[in-house]
Amino acid sequence: MASKQRIRKAVIPAAGLGTRFLPATKAIPKEMLPIIDVPTVQLIVKEASDSGIEEVIFVTGRGKSSIIDHFDMHTDLVRKLRETGKEDLALVVEEINDLARVTSVRQQEPKGLGHAVLCAKHLVGDEPFMVLLGDDLVNASPPCTQQMIDVFEKHQKSVVALQRVGSDEVTDFGICGGQTIADRVYELDSMVEKPSEEDAPSNLAIVGRYVLKPEIFEYLEATEPDDQGEIQLTDAMARMMKVDGFTGYEFSGKRFDAGDKFGFLQANISYGLKRRDIAPRLKAYLRDILNN
To answer: Which long-range contacts (CB under 8 A, 24 or more apart) does 276-281 make?
Structure first.
């Protein structure tokens, strides 16, 4: 029996244009928009790092260099903060560099999520890896990534994160069908990208966390672009599922679609309510709004 491989690498696709947040994203990557004072993407990298991921591979596009810059050591800033007695802020800046080793690859054309993952093939190599979408936040303990890795290590099959959605929302997601094999765990037998309500196999939607075996690259390379010229990750996974099997995991935690205006506001409020420096005033403000 082959020895089990530890998941050491994560891919974060971050090449999208962020059109839903224009004009803010005209010059700022959507992944750098802050949840309070922490860029969205930093929270995602921290989730990966807290789950044992050692290397994060960003798949970027034009105008996204500030993402990589954010994870560089800024010695001048740290020195200036210490010289002015701001040791707490110096530590905050230094902690960013301790999260994980960061590398990047450029997606030359916007050809979809599947193509973005394929761009990282040479950096991932022949080992299982995580994919975390750059605008999907999950507030969970243990981290959602750790939950996913635990499921993979137990079942030794690729894993997709699942969340139940309303029947009127299935057309916005990849939807899975399958059989329950453990609490919150499913052996999948179908994956459909954005089905009609009538064709959806369930209301279990794929959200932005995946554990993938390296064989996914073969299926991505053989996947034809859709009508929009995009290579869909769900299409490649559906074909891989028939040969290698796939596990679905209904994770524990609260997910926020930070790429959506309302989801972004929800995330800021939710994370703000967990901050001791903000929560009391925020709670009072929300009560005031509700009472008027």
So the answer is: 278/36
- pLDDT lower than 50: segments of the chain: 1-2
Annotate 82-98 with DSSP letters as a single string. HHTT-HHHHHHHHHHHT
CB 213 within 8 A of CB 158: yes
Spell out the domains of the chain, with CATH numbers in brackets: 9-259 (3.90.550.10), 261-292 (no CATH)
Buried b (16+ CB within 10 A) or exposed e, 108-121: eeebbbbbbbbbbb
Q: Which of 228, 149, 245 is nearest to 191 (CA)?
A: 245
Measured distance CA(49)–CA(146) in Å, rounded: 10
Dump the DSSP string for 220-247. Answer: HHTPPP-TTS---HHHHHHHHHHHH-EE
SS3 78: helix
Q: How far apart are CA 36 and CA 139, in angstroms?
A: 14
Question: Is the separation of the CB atoms in 61 and 95 below 8 Å?
Answer: no
For tokens 């990534």, the residue is 145
Residues facing 175 on adjacent strands? 192, 205
For position 1, what pLDDT does the model report? Answer: 40
**How wide is the angle at C-alpha 125 spanned by C-alphas 120 and 131, nearest 5°?**
50
pLDDT for residue 197:
87
The secondary structure element, H or E, covering residue 270 is helix 261-272
DSSP β-ladder status, 174-182 and 55-60 = unpaired
Tokens of 66: 């500030």
